[in-house]
Amino acid sequence: MVALSAAPSTRARTLLPPAAVLAAVLGAWELGLGWAEVPGYVLPRPTAIAVKLWQEVEPLAGAVGTTLGEAVLGYVIGNLLGFGLAVVFFYFRTLDRVAMLPIVASNSVPAVAFAPVIILWFGVGMTSKVVLVAYITCFICLQNQLQGFRQCDPQAVNVLRSFGASEWRIFRTLRLPASLPYLFTALRMGSIRSVIIAIVAEMLGAYAGVGWVIFETTASMDFLRLWAAVIAASASGVAFFVLVSTVERRVLWWHASIGATGRAGRRRGRGNDDV
Q1: Other CB atoms within 10 Å distance of the CB of residue 55
Q2: CA nearest 220: which of 59, 41, 61?
Q3: How much is the pTM?
Q4: Which is nearest to 254 in space by CA: 191, 180, 186?
Q5: CA-based torsion, 247, 252, 253, 258: positive or negative
Q6: Alpha-carbon span 47 to 53, nearest angstrom
Q7: How far is it, in rounded angstroms, from Cα 61 to Cα 76?
Q8: What is the mean pLDDT of residues 151-180?
Q9: What does the alpha-carbon distance between residue 62 and residue 78 come to, in Å, rounded to a whole number?
Q10: Domains located in the chain, CATH noted
Q11: How many CA atoms lie within 13 A of 166 on its CB side?
Q12: pLDDT digits 0-9 by tens, 190-228
């Protein structure tokens, strides 16, 4: 019973500081604007934005759903491609030396520069956004995962080889688990970038999504709806990041990067299952 009550209290202590900071910022924002008499079109009050969010909840929810659908699909495709390329480049070093330079060169240009070309090739629909998100997240995953494979302890590899382990067994039991922290670093970085890229691409050419709402409201000078769309987009990006981070804590509970809190929570979870 003690273990059952410990987890919620720990979770509450973890969430309390950021919640308090958020409440303080919103309160200062609300009171400061009222004191300075700042016009609403310059910077609206949080309460006005909240009312607008409530009034526009259905269209904004649809726009967020469209953007998240594009971001998640491109995110999955890009990370799968990046992981596959990391495996190929790790085992075929010549291909790594030949192909990595053009890949790095193409990713040294901001993604927004490629967006008009991608939209021209694939149209203003969902496909162009998925392709652009996959392109960006693929490079992030490739770089991090390749670094993870290279950081594997060579002495441990030699020990497994001395016992007659095949390369596939070494990869499955040693290289892949050792590289998981690098993989989840890429997944966390990509979760935020995927939403940003999808929104930017929608602003350049789309008929739906948060980016399209932002472009439309800017053109019509409906700044309150613009802020509501920005807040909705930010909340969706944070939710995606938190989801990936939660999966990371559950998968890598044993790793030092998670820390004692994550391991303790995992042990409590096991204790709860036993109860």
Answers
A1: 13
A2: 41
A3: 0.80
A4: 180
A5: negative
A6: 10
A7: 22
A8: 86
A9: 24
A10: 39-274 (1.10.3720.10)
A11: 3
A12: 998 999 999 988 888 878 888 888 888 887 787 888 888
